[in-house]
Amino acid sequence: MRTLITGGAGFVGSHLCERFLADGHEVVCVDNCITGTLPNVEHLRANAHFSFIRHDISHPLEIDGPLDNILHFASPASPVDYLRHPIPTLKVGALGTHNTLGIAKAKNARYLLASTSEVYGDPEVHPQREDYWGHVNPIGVRGCYDEAKRFAEAITMAYHRHHGINTHIVRIFNTYGERMRLDDGRVVPNLMGQALRGERLTVYGDGSQTRSFCYVSDLVDGIARLLAADFHEPVNLGNPNEVTILDFAKEILELTGGASRIEFKPLPQDDPKVRRPDITRARQLLGWEPTVERRDGMRRTLEYFRNKV
Ligand code: NAD
Ligand code: UDP
Question: Is residue 258 pLDDT above 80, yes or no?
C-alpha cells in the first residue's frame, strides 16, 4: 500500500502518518507547513517508507509511481489560523481538494476527505446527524473555512458520482491530543497552556457554549476504518460526551492543580452555541466508538504541553 497524506505535518496528519506506517504502508507526506511543523514528523524521517514533500497542494502536484490511498487533510483548522489565512483556507478546500481528487483519478486511488463539524455551522439540530444540512453564515468570518469544506464535500461527491472514484468523507468533531500547536488558538492548547503557565484561563462568552472532545487516537482509528469501508456519504467521527466550555476550563484547573483563575472574554463572531456528534452511523457502519475518557486524554495532552511551555 502506498498512501499520500496531505497536511501530514499537522496535528492529525502526523498521527495518520504514524498509523499508516505502523500498518505497513509507504507514506508520502505533503505539507507546506502553513500551520503544521516539520518537528511533528521528525521521528518518522529515518523510516525508509516515509517521504516528505514540501508543497502547497492548492497548486497541482505530480507524484511518481502508483498510489493506493489519498487522505486530504491539508487545511488550517483552528479558527485563529483560518481567520489569519482566509484565502489560503478557501484555496486549499477548493483547489487543493480538486488537485487531490485529480491525483486519485489518475492513480485510481481510494480517497478520503477531512471534512468538519463546521459544515453544520451554528446548528439548529442537536446532536448533529449526517443528514442535517447545516446553518452556516457564508459571509461571516468563519465562512472561509465552513464554505471551503462544504465545497470540498460537494466536489468529492461529484468525483464519486461522475468519475466513479472510491471516495470517503469524514466529518471530524473537535479532536485534541499531542502535537497540537500550543499557540494555535484552539480551546485545548489555549487553556492548557494558560493553566501550565499559571495565567488566567480565557473563557469566551459566558462559557455556556458546548463542545464534545475526541482524543486523537480514537479519531485515527475511525479514519482507518472508514477508509476501508464501502461507503461514500459523510460519516461523523467525534466523541458524543458534551461539556460546556466553562466546565471544561474547570476540569483543566482540577487536573493541573494550579491556582489559576478564569477570565471571561468576548465570544467570537458566529461561535457555534452547541456541538455534539450523533455517531450512530459510525457505530453501525464501522463498529467504531471512542474509547479514551476525556480525563485520560487530557492528562496525556497536558504531559505533552508541560514540556513545551
Ligand atoms: P493542523 O493545522 O495541525 O494541520 C493542517 C496541516 O495542513 C498543517 O500541517 C498545514 O501546514 C497543512 N496545510 C494547510 N494548507 C496546506 C496547503 N495548501 N498545502 C499543503 N499543506 C497545507 O490542523 P489539524 O487539526 O491537524 O486538522 C487537519 C485536518 O482535519 C484539516 O483538514 C481540518 O479541517 C480537519 N479537522 C480537524 C479537526 C480537529 O479538531 N483537529 C476538526 C475538524 C476537522
Ligand atoms: N474558547 C474559549 N477560550 C479560548 C479558546 C476558545 O472559551 O481560549 C471557546 C470558543 O469560543 C469555542 C470553544 O472554546 O466556543 C471551542 O473553540 P475552538 O477554537 O477550540 O474551536 P471551535 O470548536 O470553535 O472550532
Answer: no
